[in-house]
Structures are given as structure tokens and as C-alpha cells.
Design brief:
By secondary structure, the chain is an alpha+beta fold. The protein has four helices and six strands; from the N terminus they run H-E-E-E-E-E-E-H-H-H. Helices cover about 50% and strands about 20% of the residues.
Length: about 250
């Protein structure tokens, strides 16, 4: 006689998925903590120190890394302007004895796109890194320059926190109800929640960044907004499931 099935097999996959989701939830929670407890304070402090830095004394001995701002004359040896997929904007600058850097930029203008090998430009160095370059009246920040963009960092941390809650909720339901976890599935409920989370967090980051509003407005607005969206989507998909006749 063929072996009989015990019925345990079909429940293993939901249980494994539930455990995986809870593990992912813990990872996302750690990422959220790192953003708000480490990344955000570090960037804010670095920006404050950069803005408070004074010009180095003219007669001071030049060192590789200094807390003051030093204006250095650089020679351009190469540039790279690649605006395609995975765009890269870089310039190779040389100034003896310490600074021979491949300097990254976020965009090509207004200075980088004008540079040609052999040209002489000026740059501002702080703590051993090139913060800005200047040619004539044009000035451009490098990617290493501290920026007051805590709102976007807060948006990343908020997304990680919401992702942790999402994974924890879906994982807990799968562990508690391995055979009946609708609508807590990837499609359509989880997919729509994830897409909405990304859109709302990104929009909140940009909308608070442009006028310079405090970064804490991002989680303050996004979390209740996503709680409302999650509840409405849950009601919608539960109603759809209730409308489907039982087999």
C-alpha cells in the first residue's frame, strides 16, 4: 500500500515563512535603531562642526587632517562624467604633499562639467577630505561635504521601522494561523503596503527637506498615515475575501 500522508507537510512552509519574516523584522528593527541612534546624530554633529569650522591660520604648518578649513590649489588630472545608469561624477585632483584624490560629486554642475585636465582650481579641505571646489565665481560641493539633510535620513529610518512592523505582523499571523493567514499575504495586501510605505516615506522626506522643517516631522506624519492606510487596505481585502463563495 502507498504511504499515507499525515497532513503535516502543507503547514511547514507557512511556519518557515513566518519564522523568516520575524527574523527579517528583527533585522529591520536593528536598521531603524542604527539610523536614528547612530547615523542621524553623527551626520547632524558633523554638519554642525563643519559649519562652525574656521579658516586655518596662514602660517600654520599644513597637516594631512585638520579641523580648520584650508584653501588648497589643485591641479585637475582627470574627470569622469557618466550620467547613464549608475551615474558617476568624479574628478581626480592633485596637490602635494598630501592631497591626491578621486573626488565624487552628486551631479556634474556647475564646476565639474567645466574642468579640463591640467587646469588649476581651488578647493576647501576639512579633516583631510575635499569639501568644495571652485573655479572663478562658481563653487560646487563634493559628495564628502556634510549636508543638513536629516529629513531624508529620517525617512530611511522610518521606512525601516515600518518594514519591521510589517514583517513582524505577517510573520506572527503565519505562525499563529499557518493554514488560514489571509489576507496577510504578499499579494495583494503586503505588496500594496510596501509600495505605499515607500511612496509616503519618500514624499515626507522631500516635502520636509525643501522648506527645512524638522526631521522628526517625518515619522510623526508617516506612522499614523500608514496605520490608517493599513487599516483601510485590510478592510478592503477582508471584504473581497468575504465576497468569495466557499468551495
Amino acid at each position: 500500500m502507498p504511504p499515507t500522508r499525515t497532513g503535516r507537510g502543507p503547514s511547514r512552509r507557512p511556519l518557515l515563512m513566518g519564522a523568516s519574516l520575524i527574523t527579517a523584522s528583527l533585522i529591520s528593527a536593528l536598521a531603524c535603531y542604527a539610523v536614528f541612534a547612530v547615523w542621524l546624530p553623527y551626520d547632524a554633529e558633523r554638519y554642525r562642526e563643519y559649519m562652525a569650522a574656521e579658516q586655518c591660520p596662514d602660517r600654520a604648518a599644513t597637516q594631512r587632517a585638520e579641523d580648520c578649513l584650508r584653501t588648497v590649489s589643485f591641479t585637475v588630472t582627470d574627470t569622469e562624467l557618466d550620467g547613464g545608469r549608475g551615474s558617476r561624477y568624479r574628478a581626480t585632483l592633485y596637490a602635494a604633499p598630501f592631497w591626491n584624490h578621486v573626488v565624487p560629486f552628486g551631479d556634474p554642475g556647475p564646476v565639474l562639467e567645466q574642468l579640463r585636465p591640467g587646469e588649476r582650481i581651488t578647493g576647501t579641505v576639512w579633516r583631510g577630505a575635499i569639501m568644495t571646489i571652485a573655479k572663478g565665481d562658481s563653487r560646487q560641493n563634493t559628495s564628502d561635504a556634510p549636508r543638513d539633510e536629516a529629513q531624508m535620513t529620517a525617512a530611511i529610518g522610518t521606512f525601516a521601522g515600518l518594514l519591521s512592523v510589517l514583517a513582524l505582523g505577517f510573520g506572527a499571523v503565519r505562525l499563529a494561523r499557518p493554514r488560514d493567514h489571509e489576507p496577510f499575504t504578499w499579494y495583494p495586501y503586503g505588496k500594496w503596503l510596501l509600495i505605499t510605505m515607500g511612496i509616503v516615506c519618500t514624499a515626507a522626506g522631500f516635502l520636509t527637506l525643501w522648506p527645512g522643517w524638522p526631521w522628526w516631522l517625518v515619522p510623526t506624519v508617516v506612522v499614523p498615515a500608514m496605520a490608517y492606510v493599513a487599516w483601510q487596505l485590510y478592510r478592503h481585502f477582508r471584504q473581497r475575501l468575504s465576497a468569495v463563495p466557499a468551495p
